[in-house]
């Protein structure tokens, strides 16, 4: 997907908040071998590295656009490589800490994905993950509704992006069933107060809209955006806009 770091970083502080909650859940030990799955621009991976002063950290991401930013954060402890999460799994390498902040929601079949990622851990290793769970909010539902309407439905060949994110009970069961201990799984609302619906559109255009706009021809892309903006303005008629964003955080240790 054509990620745009500038658009994504418009709400940097808001997007960074869950990362700090994840950081607090890490079992910090000396000499950890760490991988950050879906590291984006690398800015938070650098903060992760600073939090683990004797660790060796690898950040991987499939987006060349995002990784252009990452080179400024590289250190003797921290390296970056362009690789998808699926490709990294196939490498068969093991880590003491597998970390992923807001990336796994782009991958399908979490019922099999999470157990597969668990196999990347060394004995005693820790899995620390955050995924957005805001798929039922109007901002996301309206995208799917629009995509099912003509002329967009035909242009997309009926495609609708599936919602792979599970509920917290399902994640807890997966972690336990595959040998997890010290399990913590919870959903948290991160409240964001945005100036207006234009700001709300900017937020969504940095993530959830991307796969749809990528697939639509240029003319329909413009129409899709205009119709989506109209829908936002109709649904959120007061300013500022309160945007409660739900996220799931999960942590477990595997022996």
Automatic annotation (TrEMBL):
One of its GO terms (biological process) is methylation. Transmembrane segments: none annotated. It is an enzyme of class 2 (transferase). Its EC number is 2.1.1.144. Keywords: Methyltransferase, Transferase. CDD domains: AdoMet_MTases. Residues 30-141 form the Methyltransferase domain. The keyword Transferase applies. PANTHER family: TRANS-ACONITATE 2-METHYLTRANSFERASE, TRANS-ACONITATE 2-METHYLTRANSFERASE-RELATED. This is Trans-aconitate 2-methyltransferase. It comes from Pedobacter heparinus (strain ATCC 13125 / DSM 2366 / CIP 104194 / JCM 7457 / NBRC 12017 / NCIMB 9290 / NRRL B-14731 / HIM 762-3). The lineage of its organism: Bacteria, Pseudomonadati, Bacteroidota, Sphingobacteriia, Sphingobacteriales.
